[in-house]
Predict the structure of Homoserine dehydrogenase.
Amino acid sequence: MGFKIGLLGLGTVGTGTAEILLDPTGRNPLLQEIEIYRVGVRDTTKPRTVDLPSTAFTTDLEAIATDPDIDIVVELIGGLEPARSLILKAIHHKKHVVTANKAVISRYGDEIFTAANEAGVYVMLEAAVGGGIPVIQPLKQALVVNRIQSVMGIVNGTTNYILTRMQAEGADFAEVLADAQRLGYAEADPTADVDGLDAADKLAILASLAFGGRVKLEDVYCEGIRQVSAADITYADRLGFTIKLLAIAHRESPTDNPDLLQLRVHPTLVPKAHPLASVNGVYNAILVEGDPVGQVMFYGRGAGAGPTASAVVSDIMSIAAILKVEEIEAQQFNQQKVDVPHPLLSCSHQHYCAIAPMAELNTRFYARFLCNDEPGVIGHLGTSFGNHQVSLESVVQIGFQDGFAEIVVVTHESREGNFRQALEEIRTLKAVERIPSVVRVL
Amino acid sequence: MGFKIGLLGLGTVGTGTAEILLDPTGRNPLLQEIEIYRVGVRDTTKPRTVDLPSTAFTTDLEAIATDPDIDIVVELIGGLEPARSLILKAIHHKKHVVTANKAVISRYGDEIFTAANEAGVYVMLEAAVGGGIPVIQPLKQALVVNRIQSVMGIVNGTTNYILTRMQAEGADFAEVLADAQRLGYAEADPTADVDGLDAADKLAILASLAFGGRVKLEDVYCEGIRQVSAADITYADRLGFTIKLLAIAHRESPTDNPDLLQLRVHPTLVPKAHPLASVNGVYNAILVEGDPVGQVMFYGRGAGAGPTASAVVSDIMSIAAILKVEEIEAQQFNQQKVDVPHPLLSCSHQHYCAIAPMAELNTRFYARFLCNDEPGVIGHLGTSFGNHQVSLESVVQIGFQDGFAEIVVVTHESREGNFRQALEEIRTLKAVERIPSVVRVL
């Protein structure tokens, strides 16, 4: 017995994965049956911190994806290509796949899972969302008897780190980003993180699992945190909110039209008593709401070698456990093992989820206005919002900036389309100089 | 195909369980293969809200535990007997068991799992800890590759509700308890909850899973919340802490003696920035710390029909999924299905965990003293603590009560045995009138 792993990539997460597999003492005994058989790297001569025989290394990644002796291919090279092709090749060669690659799964999940179902293999991706936090497995198993109403979370550590520091220090975005880059918490090119693209990838994956349908990445509305200012964080704080970059997937109307989803990533004012409000720094958390379980939240480190490797190896273990059941079963019958799809671990949905346009979203809004300091301005704002059926929860003149009165508005729940029309009308008001920020409120 | 369930008990959780099984639309399709075959109740004539044929009901619970047509027995009657005997009987008749019964598992887990391993069946208990929160399954699967250093949590909703209201209202324990009883958040006899016994049951189960060894319930040190006063909550708040009833299991010394555990349930001063500090009301949360995953927290409703039923049915589904794999495998070979133990779902450990005595615990302490208002009192306290190698982090005279000076001390991390000896010495000081409270600090 024993299961052979082919590791594609030995970077940070690959090394963390190898470290767990090579040091099984004090961990689950099934680990001892898993062998790192081949490791695909760019340069076999590079010194490595993990103790693997030099014969295990190869630069021929395709040879690993097709090696008949390998049971599970673990893809940790990241990026779109050759990751996608290698995953597909491994699947066609009847290998189970474990990946941490959110970008490939969110873009090519349909192609990959269709191929996996045809080949009768598993594609596991716990590490693709939330680092070491078990959230994919609970969605596929422990929560699977629920009708999920929403999945929302803080799924990008870099932006949460930046927002947490902006909040703590009263600092502006550009300043904290520069420091985060210096400290290694943000990449030199921070686009994928700060513009919400990484969070969008993860949301597409979470939504697909939670709602049992495929999701197109381009259906995820996406807004990053570049526009969030120190001023907005301060005003939000005074109003009882913390600003977080949330990824939110929810049924637009659970009773009337349960199949219509809303998918969005944007900065959000989160009430301070909400469980997501106190998730700070590089931590991630995902809040699932289902019938009948209610609210359940999963919290932990969303990145890093150790946490991500924990998720990768747990996926390897899930597959190994099933293979072992099949193997013993086959031995009992004196037969060759047959791969049988585990009903909860394999992907069963094939239709695409229907997505509601953002204009149909019902939410509260926070908006900040710079106005001429003249009587009646608040009345004008109120009238314009009223003209478009947007009712206001609070209107506060916070102070003055550059000689303009600074007015902060929080609306009641309104249709986004109506709110946008009201803003268009307000922009034409002579008394209104600028609208520096508009943020949705949870 | 199809799997037959025998339900023992149709109370709150039993009814919630039946409601999920009878209404599979929008949930995982595997649910449709699960049939409620028999229901054991005390009174078959009682009107029921769930739509089950009257022929399914019986008062003969033993007949369900032994019925050859039943695949999975779901024990939801609670209490020790006849629950224990029925579970054992079902196991001996080769039935898989799902239970929400923490009391039976924490006391008779060794007997039950030994029997289950001999019979080759699963005993699943997600619902026994944390209601609907997936925590047992992550400990058995997603986190199983980690070396766990600690598991701690808020696992009793009643006490957390009481402490949250005491904090919010500045009210005393007895007052809030009476109101909680009136509102149905606390039982008429609140002993199991407020004295920490329910939390101790759950901690024994969590520790056993996290540390891969059996745990004796009597090894759990247990202190309830009756002694927590409004004054302590106020002072803790000023010092930056929230008081929570925590259940804590951790390795005493992860490097030197990893097999020695500390198991304890007691009120605890939790720093406000700690993830458990903001878990309020009837919510539960369990924080797991492992190598290499770091801190991971699971949060949700710890009780109630819906959440608990979600956990029960998810366990049923986990078993059904494995049975289905075995069934298809057997069909492929034209053989009778053989039960094969899934390496992660079955219980593999047989040794008992070694437990360190409380005197060996290293922790910080909060203590409140009523002293005569005379110069040098703080010096006397400091000297006595120093005599026993307890160093102090802060000593604050908070104010006066009944003519005595009220002094609050927070220590640095100290050995509990030393701290207790210091307290003995302090009790003999003439200047010290009383020591109304001693609470450990996280």
About this structure: The longest helix of chain B spans residues 305-332. Residues 44 and 234 of chain B are 52 Å apart (CA to CA). Chain B touches chain A through 71 residues (CB under 8 Å).
